[in-house]
Amino acid sequence: MPLLPALPDLVPRQRCGVIEFPVHHMRGGTSTGLVLHAASVPADLALREELLRHLMGTPQSGQLPGNRQLTGLGRGAPTSNKVFLVDVERHEGQPRLVSTLAQLAGGHADIDWSVNCGNMSSALQLWGLDSGVIEALAIGMHAIDIRNTNTGVLTTSRMARELDGSFAAAGIPGVPGSFPRVDLFLHDPVGAKTGQLLPTGKAQDTVLGYDVSCVDVAVPMVIACARQFGKTAQESMAELEADHAFMEAIRQVWSAAGLLMGLRHRDGALMTREALARSETIPKFCIVGPAAAEGNIAVRYFTPQAGHASLAVSGGCCLAAACLIPGTVAHALARGVPPVALNKTEIGIGIENPAGILGTSIVAHREAATGSIVIGSAAYRRSAQILLRGHVPLYQASPALTAWLQKQLSARL
Asked: Could you say which DSSP state residue 92 is in?
């Protein structure tokens, strides 16, 4: 049960004979999507997924190549086809947000419930404050924990309010201008999907002739040397995506590496090579090379089917952690990164990407007995923005979904 009852603007309504569903359309970092009050969403998975497809404009079944999502709020790219279901719970006497991510795709009906999104997570505290499910900020710094149900990852989101009531603002790579600043701290991020820092048991593997490192920090990712693909990690994403031979090569590599990592579906079943080749979410994939400017390493990041215009923060944290682990592809290419000490130390890693430099901080230490690197937490800075708040009319809801929504409306009367 939610800690607080749904507010009037967080529940469905009927207008001109059409049921309308409440949404916040938001930007978190370099991703956009919807944030919905979980208490207002059907518990039945089939009805829930139908609702999300209506809201985002994706097909209700099968494939629809080239779908422009004209009937919904999705924008085509995976980074703009995200929906977070959020509520609030109490833990040790304190409120914290509970988030569940649905990853949609414009061209088909499948919805992936297996991953988190670090970028969109930066919008959740702002949503909670704007919707009233968490208390309004007083002047100064305010932090709240976020428990993600997809991965089990616990994040702390921190925002600050100025004397005039506005939020402290910041600019980030890939987003023009300054918007409410959010600092996100990932706690115990290792093994988000596999339970291991190095899912294959090695810092480096050879997969289909390519040297790669498979690392699971916040998200499972395959890190490859750009040079082996004839690249530098300085190319534009348009150039990389136009190279069809390259895109097919990395698809083969991430699929084979995903098998080595033992990646699983949400129901626990092992993913097949075919499922990995189709996956919109895991494993993430990147090519890395030497930094050309002020960063420690350069990257071009894939989600995995599409190139990212900048760098997802979860992937950035994973890559930053990999830079600290001797033997990985990233460690070999990173410059200016100090060795991990025996005591817990916060180490900053700047990652060059197409939009600029993503700043990350990794808290880590080295075990004296084994020399193993232990990753304690990872932090990154984002900004968040409310694009709109309101209700979306559901013109084509099925009889079953309509009946469920009508029941919610009747319960309010």
From this structure: T
Residue ranges making up the domain that contains 65: 8-187+385-412
Please check whether residues 390 and 359 belong to one and the same domain.
no
Q: Are 49 and 178 found together in one domain?
A: yes
**3-class DSSP state of 412:** helix
* Phi, then psi, of 172 in degrees rounded to 5: -135, 155
Secondary structure of residue 249 in the 3-state scheme:
helix
pTM of the model: 0.70
**pLDDT, tens only, 264-291:** 998 899 999 999 999 988 999 999 999 9
**Quick check: 167 and 160 in contact, CB under 8 A?**
yes
Verify that 245 and 126 share a domain, yes or no. no
DSSP string, 42-55: -SSHHHHHHHHHHH
DSSP for 306-371 reads SB-SS--HHHHHHHHHHHTSTTSHHHHH--SPPPPPSS-EEEEEEEEETTEEEEEEEEEEE-TTT-
What CATH number is attached to the domain comprising 81? Answer: 3.10.310.10
Q: Are residues 323 and 256 in the same domain?
A: yes
